[in-house]
Each structure stands twice: as C-alpha cells, then as structure tokens.
Amino acid sequence: MKRIMIVDDSPMIHKLLKKEIEKLGHEVCYCATNGQEAVEKYFELKPDLIFMDVTMPVLEGDAAYNKICEKDKSCKVVFLTAIGDKELLNLNDTSNVVTIIKKPFKGEDIQNAINMAFGGH
C-alpha cells in the first residue's frame, strides 16, 4: 500500500480521486487545497506519490513541484490539468513527473499513473 497526497482546489476532485485511490488499495494521507499547503505537508508526511493540480490559488502546482523537488529528488508527481499541455508547465526539472492526466479523468487513468509511478506494483 502506497501513501498518496492529493493537491487540488476542488473538493469534488478530492472526493473522486480519494475513492479511486482507495479502491486500488492505497491510502490517501492528505488532501491539500493549494500548492503552498502541499509543500508544507509534503515534508511532514513524506507521501510516496502526489496527484497535483496545475492551476490553484496561493501557489500553482508547477511552482509547488519545483519547491518540493528542490529539496527531495525522490518525489513522484502526477499532474492533473484541464489544459493538458506539458509546455505550459514551468518546471525546473521534469525527471520527477510520472505523467500528466487531463481532466476529466477516468478510474483507469489513476490506476495507470500509479502503476507507472511504482513499476506496476
């Protein structure tokens, strides 16, 4: 079982993602509503994977990713976006990006992303 953090400003996305993640046998260790909260909680909770929205208040997803990866080179992030364009992300380094999922997503998108992050385990 992997510990997964959800970062999105939509409570509905939290609910949908949590349901899919738990259905796959993993634990949602925290649901953050903005990038700043995600950065703070990441270092406290050390999740195995983050599902992170790109567009959020306070601190955007790409900026939060950059802050986390700056200090933890082993972090793994799946970006969620309604935009779907990798070029629109302002990332310092993409080596920790597992994949980008376009909203609206399906349950199989979540399962595939988790499999990609952990080599199918």
TrEMBL record:
Q: Does the keyword Phosphoprotein apply?
A: yes
One Pfam family, please name it: Response_reg
* GO annotation terms (biological process): phosphorelay signal transduction system
Does the keyword Phosphoprotein feature in the UniProt annotation?
yes
Keyword annotations from UniProtKB, A to Z:
Phosphoprotein
Q: Which residues form the Response regulatory domain?
A: 3-118
Q: What SMART domains does UniProt report for this protein, alphabetically? A: REC (SM00448)
List every position bearing 4-aspartylphosphate. 53
Q: Which SUPFAM superfamilies match?
A: CheY-like
Q: Which Gene3D superfamilies match?
A: 3.40.50.2300
Q: Which InterPro entries match?
A: Bact_response_regulator, CheY-like_superfamily, Sig_transdc_resp-reg_receiver
Q: What is the name of the protein in this document?
A: Response regulator
